[in-house]
Task: inverse folding
C-alpha cells in the first residue's frame, strides 16, 4: 500500500517549486478572520462542551493521539461533546514520523481512531517535533505528502500544522492548507487557513488555559454533509462530510460515477462489472431511455445500463441493438435463439413467418389443383426477390 500512496503523493508534488523567490509578507490580524476556534487534548482535562459555544467559539480541533503515546484518553469524550455542542469538529495527530513509511503508519492509526465519529472539519498533520528539525525540506515534504494523500484517499480534507518558523525554514511550500502557529498580535505568513495566536486562552467550560485560533478560509461549501461540491473546474461529491471516490452515487433520482480522485466523470462511456453506461456531458449523470450519441441510437434502462440484443419496449414493440456495440440496427435480418427476425428501417424487429404449404402439414389432405406447382413456384420466387438484404 505504501508504494501506491507514495506514487499518488509524488503526483501531488509534481511541478512544485522547492525554492521560492523572496516576497513581502502581508501580516494579518484577528479582524481578517471569519471564525474563532480552539484546539484541545488531554492537557485540557474534562471539558463541559455545552458551555464552550458561549465564548464565541465555533470550531475545534481535537487531538486523536500519536504513535508514541497512543490514543488520547479524552478523545472519545471530546469528539462526542464537541459534536453534541454543534461545533465544527476537526481532528489532529501529533507526528513523530521521520520516514514516509512511518507517516503512512500514522495515517492508518488516525483513520482507525476517527472512523466512528463525525469529522466535519479538516484532518490535521501536526509537524513540529524535535525529530523533524534535522530532516531536509524534501524529506519533510515527502512525509507530509504520504500522510495527507492517505487521509485524502478516505475522503477527509488534510491540513498541515506547524509554527511559522518551521513552515518558512524547513517545510516550505506544500500543496495543502496550512494552520500556522505564531503567538503575536498579527500573523506574518501569507495564505494561512488557520492561525493559532495564543496558548493562554480562556473559554467557558474548559478548566485550563487553551490554544486559541482564527480561521481565514471558508470551508462551508468545501466540506459539506451531503451533495456536490465544486473544486475549481472539478465537481466532487460528499457523503457524511467525506469526499467519495471510485464509486457510484445516487442523487436526486440520478446516478453518477466518481473516478479514483473523486471527480464526477462527464461526457464519456464507462463500463464496470454492472454494465456499460454513458455519462452526460453537462453534469455526468448516467443517461437513461433512448439516446443518440455520435449519430448512433442506444437504449439505457432505468439503472443507466446500455441494452444489447432484442429489447422489448413498454408499448410492446421490440427493437434490435447490436450485441457488441449496443447501437440500434436497421434493415437487416438476424437470428436469435434459432428464430429469424427482420429488422426494419426503424430498428423494429419482427419474426419472419415462412409460408407453410399443405403437403408440409401432417395429415392434411392433398388436393391437386391444375397449375398449382407453377403458381407456388412463382410465389416462392416473388417472396425471395422481396426479401431485404443486410445493409452494407
Result:
Amino acid at each position: 500500500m505504501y508504494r501506491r500512496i507514495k506514487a499518488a503523493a509524488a503526483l501531488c508534488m509534481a511541478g512544485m517549486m522547492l525554492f521560492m523567490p523572496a516576497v513581502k509578507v502581508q501580516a494579518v490580524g484577528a479582524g481578517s478572520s471569519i471564525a474563532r476556534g480552539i484546539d484541545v487534548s488531554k492537557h485540557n482535562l474534562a471539558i463541559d462542551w455545552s458551555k464552550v459555544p458561549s465564548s464565541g467559539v465555533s470550531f475545534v480541533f481535537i487531538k486523536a493521539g500519536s504513535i508514541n503515546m497512543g490514543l488520547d484518553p479524552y478523545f472519545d469524550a471530546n469528539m462526542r461533546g464537541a459534536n453534541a455542542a454543534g461545533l465544527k469538529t476537526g481532528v489532529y495527530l501529533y507526528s513523530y514520523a521521520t520516514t514516509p513509511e512511518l507517516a503512512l503508519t500514522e495515517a492508518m492509526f488516525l483513520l482507525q481512531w476517527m472512523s466512528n465519529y463525525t469529522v466535519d472539519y479538516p484532518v490535521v498533520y501536526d509537524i513540529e517535533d524535535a525529530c523533524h528539525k534535522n530532516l531536509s525540506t524534501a524529506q519533510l515534504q515527502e512525509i507530509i505528502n504520504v500522510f495527507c494523500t492517505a487521509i485524502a484517499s478516505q475522503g477527509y480534507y488534510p491540513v498541515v500544522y506547524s509554527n511559522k518558523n518551521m513552515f518558512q525554514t524547513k517545510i516550505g511550500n506544500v500543496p495543502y492548507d496550512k494552520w500556522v502557529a505564531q503567538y503575536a498580535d498579527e500573523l506574518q505568513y501569507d495564505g494561512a487557513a488557520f492561525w493559532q495566536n495564543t496558548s493562554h486562552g480562556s473559554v467557558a467550560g474548559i478548566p485550563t488555559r487553551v490554544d486559541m485560533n482564527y480561521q481565514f478560509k471558508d470551508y462551508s461549501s468545501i466540506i459539506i454533509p451531503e451533495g456536490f461540491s465544486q473544486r475549481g473546474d472539478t465537481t466532487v461529491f460528499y457523503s457524511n462530510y467525506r469526499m467519495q471516490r471510485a464509486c457510484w452515487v445516487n442523487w436526486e433520482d440520478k446516478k453518477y460515477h466518481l473516478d479514483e480522485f473523486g471527480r464526477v466523470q462527464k461526457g464519456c462511456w464507462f463500463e464496470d462489472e454492472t454494465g456499460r453506461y454513458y455519462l452526460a456531458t453537462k453534469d455526468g449523470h448516467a443517461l437513461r431511455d433512448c439516446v443518440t450519441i455520435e449519430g448512433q441510437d442506444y437504449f439505457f434502462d432505468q439503472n443507466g445500463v446500455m441494452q444489447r440484443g432484442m429489447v422489448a419496449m413498454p408499448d410492446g414493440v421490440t427493437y434490435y441493438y447490436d450485441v457488441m456495440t449496443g447501437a440500434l440496427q436497421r434493415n437487416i435480418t438476424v437470428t436469435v435463439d434459432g428464430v429469424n427476425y427482420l429488422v426494419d428501417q426503424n430498428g423494429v424487429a419482427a419474426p419472419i413467418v415462412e409460408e407453410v404449404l399443405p403437403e408440409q402439414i401432417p395429415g392434411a389432405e392433398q388436393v391437386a389443383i391444375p397449375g398449382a406447382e407453377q403458381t407456388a413456384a412463382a410465389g416462392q420466387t416473388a417472396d425471395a426477390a422481396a426479401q431485404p438484404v443486410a445493409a452494407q
In short: Residues 11-23, 364-392 have pLDDT under 50 and may be disordered. The first strand starts at residue 35 and ends at 40.
